Every structure is written in structure tokens, then in C-alpha cells.
Amino acid sequence: MTRNSPPDVGQKIKALRSERKLTLDQLAKASGVSKSMLSQIERGLTNPTLGTLWSLTQSLGIEIASLLNEAPQAGPDERTVAVTKSYQTPEIQSADGKCTLRILGPIDMVSKTEWYDMRLEGGGILESEGHGDGTMEHLTVLSGTLGVRNGNNEQILEAGDTARYEADIPHFIENKGKSEARALMVVVSA
After folding, report:
1. What gap in Å lies between CA 60 and CA 30, rounded to an integer?
2. 30 vs 17: CA distance, rounded Å
3. What's CA 147's distance to the chain center, in Å?
């Protein structure tokens, strides 16, 4: 790269996507960037906007700066601590907007383990179809009161309680209170 040439972010994004075993379609859905735009970026046919870069780096769990700079090579005795700042943590919302899930787990582990910081408005419900066979969810309530139901079984959880339940059948989590409830959820695939 010459001094005045822009960094090849397309190749870096493609390498990161491949390293994480993501298809173009999967990264497009995770980032909100269209598949065709992502393909053009990876092939160097278009330069992404800052907003597009931000969406992609959030989905890949990296900082924008790492795309724009050459990473220094760490020596064999050097260890790193990877930090994701709060403002860099990707979020997803339920269709009704009453549940926000902050994605705490790295994207390269999503096929095995996912973990979330969940915030559920008063009266809000997070409904889920069954996940893959053998999937389990582990829900720890940090504040508020949540009802957890899978099949015909429903349990009420208060702050500090943890529920572990089969998540390969339809299930839901409901905020039984009027104020926001918060919980940590870990989803483990079989």
C-alpha cells in the first residue's frame, strides 16, 4: 500500500468473515448491510460509508480502527486483552420494541454459545420458536420479575434467580412487572 492509497477494507472484511465461517448472507443479515453492497465492498468495487463500516465492524466484533490500520505483530510472549466498548456492543430488538438484547458473545461462537444482556420493558414478552435440538437456555434475573414458559411449564423468577430450560420447543420470557426487568441469558446449542 502506498502512503496515499486507502486501506483495503474489503479484503480485511472478507478475511474476517471467512475466519468466522460466515456467508455473505449471514453477515448481511447480522449487519443490516445488503448482500450486494457487502459483495461490492469485499471485491473493492465500492468504498463503504462510515455508517456501513460501523455496522459491519459491530457485527464482526471489531473496532473500525482495526480495519483502517495495519495491526502490529505481537511477539510470542505478548498477550492481549480484547475489549469491546459498551457503545460497540451490537443490539437486537424484538418486533414490538419492548425487548432489547445486547449481544455479549463473540460472533465466532454463535453456533455453540450465545450470551445476551436482556432488557424487557414492563409487560413485554420475548417469544421464541424452538431452537435446534438439544438447545438449552440459562436465564439469570438481575432486576425485576420475569416469567419463563416452555411447553406447559411456567416459572416466576425474581432478581438473583436462575432458570435453566429446554429451548428446542416454543418458549417465552415475560416481564411480569410494570418497570424494566434485566437479565443475562446464555443459549447453549447441543
Report:
1. 9
2. 12
3. 23
Whether 9-68 shares its CATH topology with 89-188 is answered: no
Which of 92, 172, 186, 187 lies closest to 140, judged by CA? 186
Cell of 143: 432486576
According to the CATH classification, is domain 9-68 in 2.60.120.260? no
Q: Tens digit of pLDDT for each residue in 21-79?
A: 889 999 999 999 889 889 888 888 877 776 788 888 888 888 777 776 654 455 566 67
Task: Return the CATH number of 89-188, one of 2.40.50.180, 3.40.50.920, 3.40.50.2300, 2.60.120.10.
Answer: 2.60.120.10
pTM of the model: 0.60
Q: Where are the domains of the chain?
A: 9-68, 89-188
3-class SS string, the chain: CCCCCCCCHHHHHHHHHHHCCCCHHHHHHHHCCCHHHHHHHHCCCCCCCHHHHHHHHHHHCCCHHHHHCCCCCCCCCCCCCCCCCHHHCCEEECCCCCEEEEECCCHHHCCCEEEEEEEECCCCEEEECCCCCCCEEEEEEEECCEEEEECCEEEEECCCCEEEEECCCCEEEEECCCCCEEEEEEEECC
